[in-house]
Sequence to fold (295 residues):
Amino acid sequence: MTRPEQEQLDRKLEERLRYYRDIGIGPFFRRRGPAGGEVTPAQMRAAAGTHAGPARAASTAAGGAPNAMTRSRAASTTAESLLAAKMAALPLAKGPSLFEAAERIQGDTLARIRADLGDCTRCKLSRSRKHIVFGDGNEKAELVFVGEGPGHDEDVQGLPFVGRAGKLLTQMIEAMGLERRDVYICNVLKCRPPENRTPERDEVAACSPFLLRQIEAIRPKVIVALGSVAAQTLLNTNRSISQFRGEWLEFRGARLLATYHPAYLLRNPNAKGEVWKDLQKVMAVLGLSGRKRRP
Ligand code: URA
Fold:
């Protein structure tokens, strides 16, 4: 196979994996051991039933000891008990959690976090990025959207969600009765992965402490995780997003809801209805009645 053919194949494979990931199928594993031979259905089933190993970058990078969500809080209400039960059911990656380990920085601000990030070279993405995409919006937002990482347009402009997926996200925000400047929008990664490939473990590990600080500094009521990379990173789980999409979870004192990524909706417009239902739950919590027609 020639190099261009190999690259085209890699791109197709990456696209397909992204699609599966969007709809909550995976993670996929490369079979270890001697090369050659097909993966048998039994092996496939066995792999599907496990979640250890290199899995997806996001989930393993955030990996860790039971975090604040899963440590059993004395649940004084039925809702809290249900939440605790749900979180206990999310399998966690092994190793110390980046988010647990991170200490709260008293009086932290977005400006200080941005200054600490500096002209970041903590991971290899710094070599190919045009701009760091730190985040954008209201420092006092009640609602924070977390995506995966900048794409081409975001890399060029230095702003999150300004490409096609971003336009759809803007429509969704407006349909909720808000404007972009009312909310805060950021990503797990601050630099674009080449060809928009899936974030790698070291990249998420280097970048996610800044995301945590952003969330801690803003202290939103609600966090919406857009897509599986954001959801799995924040929740420190390898579990497929399809298993908890649209359900209220907890993230360090905020309510967290995971929903499909707008890029997924561009490819699968039929899923917009489900996302709109998820956003209506957010609106109910924030006391929003919506303004525009739904996207
Ligand atoms: N997709 C993301 O996850 N984030 C962006 O900023 C743009 C597209």
